[in-house]
Design a protein that fits this description.
InterPro entries: FAD/NAD-bd_sf, FAD/NAD-binding_dom, FAD/NAD-linked_Rdtase_dimer_sf, Pyr_nuc-diS_OxRdtase, Pyr_nucl-diS_OxRdtase_dimer, Pyr_OxRdtase_I_AS. Belongs to the class-I pyridine nucleotide-disulfide oxidoreductase family. This is FAD-dependent oxidoreductase. Its cofactor is FAD. Helix content is about 30%, strand content about 20%. β4 and β5 form a beta hairpin. α1 packs parallel to α8. The strands form five sheets. Strands 1, 2, 3, 4, 5, 6 and 16 form a seven-stranded mixed beta sheet that branches. It contains 13 helices and 21 strands. The N terminus is likely disordered. The chain is globular and about 105 Å long. It is an alpha/beta fold.
């Protein structure tokens, strides 16, 4: 397997932020009054907030320092899932013989893969563009925002007044101060998409969701990948069984997985790097990809002048309604310290803008936030984990070997597990396997809406679908409930009564039937 020679490969430079000349709208309203809502940041949270506010008729100004769309569009969800699609396709081709399909040697054209990544960004970009915002009645400006007071700011030195403001400046990849790491020109999720040549040897620092996803992807595309995780195992927030399944999958893809060790120093230059680990191991690699967390983008906003309190971590202090310590300023997305997911940022933007513009007090619900690691197998979960030590919790599991779709596709490394509290309410779930994120959605909605598993069990599920695991878990729970003393007694009484009634009707019919 080889990568396309960068000297002969066609250009795969990322698309520009927006076609034409970048322009900014006026920073004042037509009548000179303060903006109803100033949105600082044009990522997912800011975009949703601006559209929500404008939809309510609020005069809204969105200011973005770089390009609208945020990390999700340019460096996060969109490019990573486009690369994962290519990597998973390569893996599927290699695994096809187990189903009787032989495709020969698998060749990866890395330049074509990266073109697919950037073409995907370009196709989605118009949805998040300044033109789309302006079409919705939102004023858009580009520049750096600095707060100057409780209801005032400047954008590149020009004053802006607002009645309410929403901070949505997101976060950026963290790069630890490990000796020699900065000199090694480490890659992050911000710039890994600029690669034009597949790294022959890649060290991924961090075994969280991003590290596992990209580590598996690069391994499947042909890199020799080492993943170094300082914690005892990859995917630390997930349950041990799920983490073990992902770890096994990474190793099956050829990843050298180093758990419970840390990177102490890096020597050399890109293309010839020596990574020294805490256990004495030295890894010789071409590049290092850092995936050890993110830093909130609050350090240069002048929040102190606006009366907005910031934690030592850099996250903004917010209440349950996403209001900061300045009652006229709200915050949404990564900088709140809530789970740093695009879907959380979008919900935050809608909720905070509604509260700011309409005077509502809707609160964020944290117990049903789903999270998905898009490795193969996928890991999707929410709420209380299956390793709960609360004695009132019960866990019901359905192994993938009991899911007929998994058996048919020969993909039985996974399970569906649900966690119930002492009152039988769904408080957590975990799905491991293909399309786990989609399968989890039904369980997340059930928990959010307070729907019982008995209702889920009584819902007709398509067969054979991956959601059959959810149905089986719900049916198992319902049967367990029916086996309890009181329900079991009631059903036995009803069953016996029904049998006697049928026998009586049959006897009565025989007695009245005319003799022949």
């Amino acid at each position: 397997m080889t990568a396309t020679d960068p000297a002969t490969a066609p250009s795969i430079a990322p698309p520009t932020a927006a076609p034409g000349v970048r322009r900014s709208d006026p920073l004042t309203t037509p009548d000179g009054a303060p903006w109803d809502l100033l949105v600082v940041g044009g990522g997912t949270a800011g975009l949703v907030a601006a559209h929500t506010a404008a939809g309510f008729g609020a005069r809204t100004l969105l200011v973005e320092r770089h390009r609208t769309g945020g990390d999700c569009l340019w460096t996060g969800c969109v490019p990573s899932k486009a690369m994962l699609a290519a990597a998973h396709a390569a893996a599927a081709a290699r695994r096809a013989p187990r189903l009787g399909v032989h495709v020969g040697d698998v060749h990866v054209d890395f330049a074509a893969v990266m073109r697919h990544v950037h073409d995907t960004i370009a196709r989605i970009e118009p949805v998040d563009s300044p033109e789309r915002l302006r079409g919705a009645g939102i004023a858009v400006a580009h520049g750096d925002v600095t707060m100057t007071g409780p209801q005032s700011a400047v954008v590149d030195g020009e004053p802006v007044r607002f009645a309410q403001a929403l901070l949505a400046t997101g976060s950026s990849p963290s790069v630890p101060g490990i000796p020699g790491l900065a000199e090694a020109s480490p890659l992050t999720s911000d710039d890994v998409w600029d690669l034009t040549e597949l790294p022959g040897r890649l060290l991924v620092l961090g075994g969280g969701p991003i590290g596992c996803e990209l580590g598996q992807a690069f391994a499947r595309l042909g890199s020799r990948v080492s993943v170094v995780e300082a914690g005892p195992r990859v995917l630390g927030p997930e349950d041990a069984h799920a983490a073990a399944l992902v770890a096994a999958a990474l190793r099956a893809d050829g990843v050298d997985l180093q758990e419970d060790v840390s990177l102490e120093r890096v020597e050399g230059t890109p293309g010839d790097l020596a990574a020294h680990l805490s256990d004495g191991t030295v890894l010789h690699v071409d590049r290092v990809l850092v995936a050890v967390g993110r830093t909130p983008g609050t350090h240069d906003l002048g929040l102190g002048s606006a009366g907005v309190e910031v934690r030592e971590s850099g996250h903004v202090v917010v209440d349950g309604a996403l209001r900061t310590t300045n009652p006229r300023i709200w915050a949404a997305g990564d900088l709140t310290g809530h789970p740093a997911f695009t879907h959380v940022a979008g919900m935050h933007g809608s909720l905070a803008a509604s509260n700011a513009v309409l005077g509502l007090r809707r609160k964020v619900r944290l117990d049903t936030i789903p999270r998905v690691t898009y490795t193969q197998p996928e890991v999707a979960s929410f709420g209380v984990g299956t390793e709960t030590d609360d004695p009132s919790h019960t866990v019901h599991r359905v192994d993938a070997t009991e899911i007929d779709r998994a058996v048919a596709e020969g993909d039985t490394d996974g399970e569906v597990a649900v966690v119930l509290d002492g009152r039988g309410r769904l408080v957590g779930a975990r799905v491991v396997g293909p399309r786990a994120g989609e399968v989890l959605a039904e369980l997340t909605l059930s928990a959010q809406a307070g729907v019982s598993l008995r209702t889920v069990a009584g819902t007709i599920h398509p067969y054979p679908a991956w959601s059959d695991g959810v149905s089986k878990a719900a049916v198992a729970r319902t049967r367990e409930e029916l086996a309890r003393p009181l329900p079991a007694t009631v059903t036995r009484v009803l069953s016996r009564g029904r049998r006697r009634w049928v026998q009586h009707r049959a006897s009565a019919a025989g007695a009245t039937r005319p003799a022949r």
